[in-house]
Design brief:
With 294 residues, this protein is α/β, with parallel strands linked by helices. The protein contains 11 helices and 11 strands. It folds into 2 domains: 205 residues, Rossmann fold, CATH 3.40.50.1000; 73 residues, DNA polymerase, domain 1 (Orthogonal Bundle), CATH 1.10.150.340. Helix 6 runs parallel beside helix 11.
Length: 294
Amino acid sequence: MRGIENIPELSNPSVCMKDPQRVKDILQSMVKAGSNTLQVISDFDMTLTRFSHNGKRCPTCHNILDNSKVISEDCKQQLDHLLKTYYPIEIDSTRSVEEKLPLMVEWWTKAHDLLVEQKIQKNLLAEAVSESEVMLREGFQLFFDHLHEHSIPLLIFSAGIGDILEEVIRQAGVFHSNVNVFSNYMDFDESGVLRAFKGDLIHIYNKREGALLNTGHFQELRTRPNVLLMGDSLGDLSMADGVQDMENILKIGFLNDKVEERKQAYLDSYDIVLIKDETLEVPNAVLLHLTGNK
């Protein structure tokens, strides 16, 4: 049986595991079940994209718009003020999720309202992405292509902006047919001007509800009860809650920021924690292992 020792990347200095034996057991069970029983559920911003590059923060889907010329300077300042107000709350390990929840909804709602006021044109989004400094993590090509080659569904669950997210992976040449995106999508009028956001707001702490609302998607994947979950926040842990009859789940967490304060909480929640690791080297090694290194 191929074990954990067959994945040398799990000895990388960025890797922390609270219970390596448990990781080994899950991997063995998943290998035994076969890759045709596997699905991957991942967050996008700061999970599939880089947190920083050469010491400089990389943009999220929202930041791509915030930093672009499609919105006014005044709007940029207001969005920046929201970020400075609410981001410290989002990553504050002393506050409970219940306490953060209404504040996160308030942040996202205010930000979306500001964007709608800007009357953003749909045809300018591609340029905003191509001119931005967004970067998928190193190893993204192998990650997306390998999943596609093995017909393993990839569900990207994002509290960002779906239109921007799709454009990022499209421009990177990896928006393959096995990729599904659940996110906040813009609603444009007939002349291509943003008038609202569609449907219910997806934010960092209600991905579980989003998962459960999309039971149709999970229904199709009933034959895939093994899940590789990837995220960078504790809110991402509920993304697989819509999976029925789950057999195994292996959770990989990227701890990008505020490492010392949050390390224990991540180790308690994720099976594998990657500390300040800007690559997909470990997820790729796990995927190769699960598909028999083919």
